[in-house]
Amino acid sequence: MKRLLFFPAAILMLLTLPQRATASVPVSLVDETLTYDVIYKWGFINKVAGYATLSLRNDGDLYRASLYAENAPWANSIYMLRDTLYTTMTKQNMYPVEYIYIAHEEGKYKKDVLKFHHSGNTFTADAVRYKRASDDAPMTSSSISLEGQGMTVDMLSSFFYLRTLDFPTMAKGKSISVNIFSGSKKEKLKITYLGPQSVELNGSKVNCYRINFTFTRKGKESSDPIAGWISADDRRIPIKVEGQLPVGKVRAMYTGPNP
Fold first, then answer.
1. Contact between residue 141 and residue 175 where contact means Cβ atoms under 8 Å apart
2. Does residue 196 have a cis peptide bond before it, meaning omega lies within 30 degrees of 0?
3. 105-114, 142-151, 231-240: which is most confident
4. DSSP state for residue 133 in the 8-state scheme
5. In this predicted structure, what is the pLDDT of residue 143?
6. Three-class SS of residue 201?
7. Beta-carbon count within 10 A of 125 CB
8. Cα–Cα distance between 57 and 47 in angstroms, integer?
9. pLDDT digit string (tens) for 45-68?
């Protein structure tokens, strides 16, 4: 469920070769706050299980963004979830600078802090993870260095890099991959463009670009394919993300206003 909330999303892509796989295009990344319902579906159950808020602010040569996700009140007794992500990116090339992930889940606390660097085609990150098993448990920490060749994103900056891709010039079925760093590991994120498709939102149709994406670690897929729909306008708003759970499926749906 977390990967769907993060959409990464977010969420992205250059080939790991030095040249671009597809050109980025001008997109209006203006100050914004986007809200989402997270809906759980299983059989006849079709209920809002959580909420997410995605915000972006311009800051000189940088973008600063955040994502906050939480359960709906009825779901707290089943699984308590409070996740917050922050990212800082360069406006030029959308390179991540710093990524922070804070999770409060079932009494556990975790915080990941990644500091990014890049030289030429090499991206590195110094990652520190802080963990506490319960409210009265001691805080522990661990660190790791991550490295990748080719464009690299974090779980939140991927939302925004994705929105700069030139979908109209991409052939249906085209796949693109990037590195994605989290607090303890490096994965590959593979995106496949599936062509234009409309999505119903607030009683009307929104023209979108449809994609799916998978995470791969050490040559093996670490998630089932996740489907996404991005509005086909100059804002490229993530409209819907959908994927399977072990029981049922979950969908993150933009709550408007319509693009």
1. no
2. no
3. 142-151
4. S
5. 95
6. strand
7. 25
8. 31
9. 788 888 889 999 999 999 999 999
